[in-house]
Amino acid sequence: MKYDYDVIIIGSGPAGFSCAMQSSKFDKKVLVVEASEDTFGGTWINSGTIPSKALRETARIIQRFQNQFEDLAKEKAYEHHQMADLLLYKNKILRSKNDKIENDFRKNEIDTIRGFGKIKDDHTVAVETSEGETKEFTTEFVMLSTGSKPIKPKGFKVDHDKIMDYTSVLSLSHIPRRLVVIGSGVRALEYATTFSNLGSRVSILNEYDSFLPFLDHEITDQLKTVLEKQKIEVFSNAEKIEIKQNTLRNTTEVKYQLRNDKENGRAHVIETEHVLYLGGKQPNTENLGLKNVGVNTDKEGYVKVDEDFKTSVSHLYAGGDVIGYPAMASSSFSEGRIASCHMFGIEADNVTTDIPFAIYSIPEIADIGLTEQEARERNLDVTVGRAYYQNITQGDISKQEDGLLKLVFETDTLKLLGIHIIGERASDLIHLGQSVMAFGGDIRYFINHVLNYPTYSEAYRIAAFNGMNRVYKAGVKYKKILKKS
Ligand SMILES: Cc1cc2nc3c(=O)[nH]c(=O)nc-3n(C[C@H](O)[C@H](O)[C@H](O)COP(=O)(O)OP(=O)(O)OC[C@H]3O[C@@H](n4cnc5c(N)ncnc54)[C@H](O)[C@@H]3O)c2cc1C
């Protein structure tokens, strides 16, 4: 062989992991370089996706249990549960995932090395180990999957004690009575509802004028109701955020202004126990040696790739957070796999159009395709069908009555164009609709097929009937709709 390896992968998160696994299945010689001294899996396993979901799961279990029994419903989780126990649950999951990934590498004969990987020249990767040693390996292809890190906030410093980020929140010693979440995105909502369900009083400071503006407007309305019930306040247009410790009162003071208050310069202050900063992220491209070979990046530093995840240099590929949007573990898995396929001459479809999104708040939110407002902006003649969880038997049984599943479909053909869900299991539920959409199906699918009962999937059937009725009322003959296609 001309080189030491067929592919060297820098970073072992979901993009790197899936590229490694796929390449090994093509019988290729693979080396994974990982900067962390004791873990594989990056943000995915160790600080982001999995730990946040594990912690959320504990809050969800507690919330469901308490909801089931009226006399428990008013109690605060922190009165009965210790943070240490919740973190123990999370730590077990992380250990098990770390063992599994190491096992997968071993079983598939994927070589690994710990150290900071850097592109030295066209076909050489240099790895600096923690002992200060530099080792060099040659390779035909390189996969850049170095992920991202949080952008440092302006106006205050994350001290990982009173002011935490998504890494330090995983070492909290207790459930805070009061928490201010600073962030505008999905993760802010996830952590806000997790802690609110553990009994914390939570406020969100959002720097933009609307919160999660990409959601369908009816999902946003439902979300507002849910947040009100959980007593979570969202302050949008928040700016000039400053944080200081009040040692006399032993609290953390978060001072901010709302943009509309600018004229009179009014400042607002929230006294809190902890602050969780969940701002934006930036790609890990520093000192990677991209300039050594001429890899193009955009103005924010994200690596530019084509639809095959190839960079501006033909034997260098990139995937995951380092290339930017959509920057999720779910999409990163596909990107790593597709990159591997293209390296080794296997045709593979790009999957980054029509991908589902999930927000693991309590309750969950998930969507795919067009929102109602997007469809109308495109002058499409669409009708919607709705199913409220309070009308689904499973919602009753599980006492999960807050929720809505909404279908957006073409009035004439009934073709499914979008699905929007807020409610228990939304992140799983979305995939039934996704499949129907992927095959170009219409909403009759949910009526003409038997769905297990009781399940949350029943929502699809109810929403389809609801949509049909609306079409009927709009003048299209009902019999024509239901006739065999
Ligand atoms: C709090 C939180 C919750 C999230 N929840 C979800 C979710 O529910 N669903 C979802 O789909 N996504 C979620 N995400 C996003 C998801 O974690 C990321 O999109 C995903 O992990 C990105 O994968 P990646 O392969 O690009 O990189 P990462 O997972 O970040 O891994 C990159 C790896 O590269 C290593 N590395 C970096 N530089 C070098 C170098 N020079 N040499 C060697 N190694 C290097 C790092 O040590 C790291 O191990 C969440 C993120 C956060 C922060």
From TrEMBL:
Pfam entry (one): Pyr_redox_dim
Enzyme Commission code: 1.6.1.1
Cofactor stoichiometry and binding remark: Binds 1 FAD per subunit.
Record keywords: Cytoplasm, FAD, Flavoprotein, NAD, NADP, Nucleotide-binding, Oxidoreductase
Gene3D superfamilies (alphabetical): 3.30.390.30, FAD/NAD(P)-binding domain
Domain Pyridine nucleotide-disulphide oxidoreductase dimerisation residue range list: 355-462
Keyword DNA-binding (UniProt): no
UniProt family annotation: Belongs to the class-I pyridine nucleotide-disulfide oxidoreductase family.
Protein name per Swiss-Prot or TrEMBL: Soluble pyridine nucleotide transhydrogenase
Organism: Gracilimonas mengyeensis
